[in-house]
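Input chain follows. Return structure tokens only.
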Amino acid sequence: MSATGISSSKACLVAAGSSVLSALALLFLWKSDAINITTAYILAVLPVSLMVFALVKTLRSSKDKTRASHRYLARMAITMAFYLITLFLAEHLIEDRGVTGWPAALLASLPGLSFAGVIWVFGALIIEEQDEFFRMLYVRQGLIATAISFTLAAIWGFLETYKIVDPVAAFWWPTIWCFGLGIGAIFNKLKYGTYGEIR
């Protein structure tokens, strides 16, 4: 793959990651009353624009759009967009507008489904990847992420049981799994000389 293609893929990943981080920062500012709802909606253009950029760049980054890695990037961008939109909807309608009952339960479930989407998208990458070496790297990366999140969940669970620490929201465990994918990529780099880059 050309240097242009590599930089394009990296730009997609940076834009997608930045969109999530900027959206979470915006949500924190909104919920802490540092900015009002109108300002939050105006500033929401930033993460949405970054996500759209990532999706468009992904679709244009390769002439061979059947590559598993490019389908992975497109699916991940869509999943993250779903996460950001549903998170803002849940925060606004449940927290600020007082929606209750089954509509609130449905709204609260939607951001969680995006985590399931991330795992499905990563699993599809493993299944669709044709290069056996890269498939092994992705499997290894996923197993490392799973080991990290499950180990921390188990330890924290017992600490909670014996009242040593306070309970934490369950959505942190799949969040840690996502960060674990990055740690798994670093382990791949150390052992095999490559992160398993999207190519």
